[in-house]
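User: Could you walk me through two proteins back to back? I'd like the raw sequence and the structure tokens for each, with a short line separating them so I can tell where one ends and the next begins.

Assistant: Of course. Protein one, sequence then structure:
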Amino acid sequence: MYTPLLRVSTNDRLPTLDPVITNPQVGSVGNARRESTSVNGPADRFRHMLIGYCRTSTADQNPDHQIDALLRHGVDRDNIHVDVASGAKASRPKLDLVMQLLREGDTLKVTRLDRLSRSVLHLVTLGADLRERGIGLHVIEQGIDTSTMEGRAMFGMLSVLAELQRELIVANTNDGLASARARGRVGGRRPRLTDDQAALAQRLYDEREKTVQQIADMFGVPRSTVYGHLDKTKTVPRQPKRTSVTKP
């Protein structure tokens, strides 16, 4: 801020004004970027930041076409974040960072919805979170803009589809369990040892021919598996080995 100070010249005694900096401000890079994307003047200069998000499933895929599209739509290169991860994962390093950086009035830009997530449930969750925080979402290639009525309607339809998907998953799971029970099958993992192997493990353990670790090594399973197959009600209590004492 510049404050004019009165200075009197010694030659003509006429007052002159010299601008003297009394309170200089040093802006951070982040603030400068937010100010550069302002559209509503000084009062709103720290809002309306455009943040871009890209994703590729593998490292050998090239995200350049996504980056170019975001640049053409006004996103600064420094504000573009790229993930190399599956779209089925809800938590990704760069996506988590983007969600932390976004503030009210900002806009998140992606090229397609599947770059943001491949799960309808996750998309709806993200959309609801952005809407509650006052953050816009612009999907470039699919023409979705939640700042418009049409864009909000699109997310409303996605919410219905997500609920339908959830109900179908629950119904299919219940049908599968009922069918398995009707055939005499129960849920859970299959035993790692066959009945014959479990019986042999029991005998070797009871007769103290082998330790649990040796039995596990023999069958190629962890010790916890052997312990899980041992019948504690039939297992003979193992006595500590006796040590012989030689008299002098």
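----
Protein two, same layout:
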Amino acid sequence: MNTTAQAFHHEYEQIRSLAEQYTEAGFQVSIEPDTGAIPFDLGDYRPDFIAVKGGTGIIVEVKPSSARISVERFHALAEEVARHPGWRFVLVTPDDVESDSVPGLAADLPAWQKLIEGVGRSRHLIDAGEYEPALLYLWGIFEGGLRKRAMEAAIPVERFPVRRAVDHMYSLGEISVKDYDLVLAALAARNRLSHGAIAGSDNQIVHARLAEDFGLLVSRLLETWRQPAH
């Protein structure tokens, strides 16, 4: 089997596996549906499959990688789908973060108020001088908010690896240039700490400032992102 055939076979198997997940969750699935199976006009676009249950419809596009995807193109498509109550567009790749729910359902994402309350709890860690735990805690809140905003704004990157999700949210204006640099600094610290790096006295000073600045940023972003997307 040549490389092209292998890639096609792998993608087909992923589509079939995903379709089975939706079926097990009670959805009625149509693989490579005719355009007439979608109750609104998407031009000549044809998804890999659609899944329907009750008043919920999910249009699923499967790609072999999250790299080199034109998210802007799929964002426009996702916005059109989101205009129809109960429907949403989902982009799925093998690189996706793991989730307890099938793609397109936000069952494992907390409410905005819960995320905002979490920022308040991180303040106690900072005040106690626990800067590294505060950074790790704040990163979890930020990432949850980032993925939730992506879903609500019809930007189909909520399942992407976090760095790619951040980059796409930045390119689409959800994160400013100044904020982007701070997010990357926090991500670098989170990666070091989560892989067992031990903070020395110099790093503690850096982490103290970073925890303060990142906490303020996360609080501000959550307040912005919780507003309805236009």
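The mean pLDDT is 89.

Let me know if you want the two compared in more detail.
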